[in-house]
Amino acid sequence: MVVGRVAAPGPISFETTPTLLEALTKSGAYSPGAGGVATPGASATIARCAIYRGSEEVLWVDLKELLSSGTSGVDITLRRGDIVYVPDDQAEQVSVLGQVRRPGAVVLSSNMRLVDVLANAGGLTDDAAGGKIRLVRPSSGLTREVAFQDLVKPRGANDSAEIALQNGDVIYVPQTGFSKFGYVLQKISPMGSLLMFGALMAGH
Length: 204
Known about the structure:
13 strands; 4 helices; 35% strand; mainly beta; 204 residues; five-stranded mixed β-sheet
């Protein structure tokens, strides 16, 4: 599935395992150049994209670096069910993962609060541990935990629960029954970084 700033968003089928550039080309983000190497289309000035794998992983890819490498050997192999999100260059967005009904990217608008972001992601699932919502800021390593019940209080009732969101933030909602959870930010190549979440069952 390729969504966002592409000519033909939606699901894409392949006969063989596709790469990221093949999926972007087929969605209209890029046009094939000499030797089959993708080149930016006339209407595309895409700097980066995100690959969402289930509700626990997000992989950010520097597309300029990927294209400048000029070889298919460094392209990223996609998996069945991956969602490729191509943001608008001017838009600011956060990623919402874990126990929400629509994991993925949420575009930030003026004065948007964390509770608004969760609502845009479809709200919490029945299995969500609402008392342990975690915000991760990969750019600085900042992490913060907040309870959902504090977020839904009227403005001013609990200002300490308010979090000023920034472009690139990741919000993770763990599953109930898990007492400890964390994340790993892994640099997979000069062009990409993978943020993976994990949890430990209570009592283990």
